[in-house]
């Protein structure tokens, strides 16, 4: 997925009437992406890392995606974004990182 597609999905999600689920998804994306970067930096330095925390955060993000997608679909909102993200754990993790990047760009 490219950053432009992630920005488009972000805008779709932000427009949803399911504000709590959107906020949960964004919070999970930020937590997971931060842990992913911390893991990368630690591994590059040869430091021990807590794989379990990263895996739990990843699961939380995946669950948040499923929850928001289900609510959006049930209320007739566009939910095809979930298919664009895919089912592959790495791709879903990449999506979390892209959302984090989108937030950084929007915050300027």
Summarize this, please?
The protein is mostly helical and 108 residues long. It has five helices and no strands.
Topology readout:
Layout: H1 3-14, H2 19-44, H3 51-74, H4 81-85, H5 89-106
Helix pairs in contact: 1-5, 2-3, 2-5
Q: What amount of the residues lies in strands?
A: under 5%
Report the C-alpha radius of gyration, rounded: 14 Å
Principal-axis shape: globular
Uncertain segments are none
DSSP strand tally: 0
N-to-C series of helices and strands: HHHHH
**SS-derived structural category:** mainly alpha
State the helix count: 5
What is the CA–CA distance across the termini? 23 Å
Helical content class: over 70%
Overview of the molecule:
With about 110 residues, the protein is mostly helical. The chain has one domain. The protein is about 80% helix and about 0% strand. The chain starts with a helix and ends with a helix. The model has no long low-confidence stretch (mean pLDDT about 90).
Essential attributes:
108 residues; mainly alpha; 5 helices; 0% strand; globular
């Amino acid at each position: 997925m490219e950053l432009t597609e992630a920005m488009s999905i972000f805008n779709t999600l932000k427009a949803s009437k399911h504000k709590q689920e959107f906020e949960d998804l964004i919070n999970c994306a930020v937590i997971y992406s931060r842990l992913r970067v911390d893991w990368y930096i630690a591994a590059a330095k040869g430091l021990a890392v807590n794989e379990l925390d990263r895996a739990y955060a990843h699961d939380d993000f995946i669950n948040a995606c499923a929850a928001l997608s289900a609510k959006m679909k049930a209320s007739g909102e566009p939910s095809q974004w979930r298919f664009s993200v895919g089912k592959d754990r790495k791709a879903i993790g990449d999506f979390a990182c892209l959302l984090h990047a989108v937030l950084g760009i929007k915050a300027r």
